[in-house]
């Protein structure tokens, strides 16, 4: 399988590309002019918003993994954030499908539900979170992630392609665990909106590799998360403090209030890393 990967040099792409190479895939990356590409890949220099560059990169590809985006929800100015991310997604998916690619895998986000960075700070209507949460959108990053999912559905419908959106939580690469956990504690209340979810980039790469090959009709949206919450404390304690009025079933220990059964059923995916750090209590 030849796979085009956009955003290959980012935090998630840095784990996805080596995983695909280890899986025997031939990988082409669409790499920005000032970025350092991976070893062992074919490189096309260009921007994901440039249809000509995407067309060159996707030539001969069997599948696409689309990761390219401005990944900062607080990026300014907001119109540029929304325009960049939605244009990149549309350009990559449309150009690839028009060229005959029939498997499209997109890096989505838990932010597609609109809760984590909503300035009104809404809490979920219930836990556990899953793919059926009704969106409450009020920020440009979340809106773009929501639109990306609709874009994939439209492109797959138009061209008879199939696609998977992996809704990523907070992603933690090796070596940054303590830094990111500490930062999560600084705004633990906001993180209630996403169930204090997280995932190692190594586990995320495994999910992308599986999403390229599993049988899918149309488009499937899949929520990913590690088994336990990012803060390493009992989940019931977090819910009592930060979301006392949100209905939920009992959670055992540090079990994240996120339903990932679809990832297990569709992808056969179970994260290997349960905690970013040893339990704190």
Architecture overview:
The chain has 281 residues and is α/β, with parallel strands linked by helices. The chain has a single domain, classed as NAD(P)-binding Rossmann-like Domain (Rossmann fold). Helices cover 35% and strands 16% of the residues. The strands form 2 sheets. It has a 7-stranded parallel beta sheet with strand order 3-2-1-4-5-6-9, with helices on both faces. It has a two-stranded parallel ribbon with strand order 7-8. It is globular.
Give short descriptive properties of this protein.
281 residues, single chain, 7-stranded parallel sheet, alpha/beta, Rossmann fold
SSE layout and pairings?
Layout (H helix, E strand, L loop, with lengths): L1 E5 L6 H10 L3 E6 L10 E4 L5 H8 L4 E4 L11 H21 L4 E7 L30 H20 L2 E7 L1 E3 L4 H10 L1 H4 L6 E3 H11 L7 E5 L11 H8 L18 H7 L14
Parallel strand pairs: 1-2, 1-4, 2-3, 4-5, 5-6, 6-9, 7-8
Helix pairs in contact: 1-7, 2-3, 3-4
Short description:
With 281 residues, the chain is α/β, with parallel strands linked by helices. 35% of the residues lie in helices and 16% in strands.
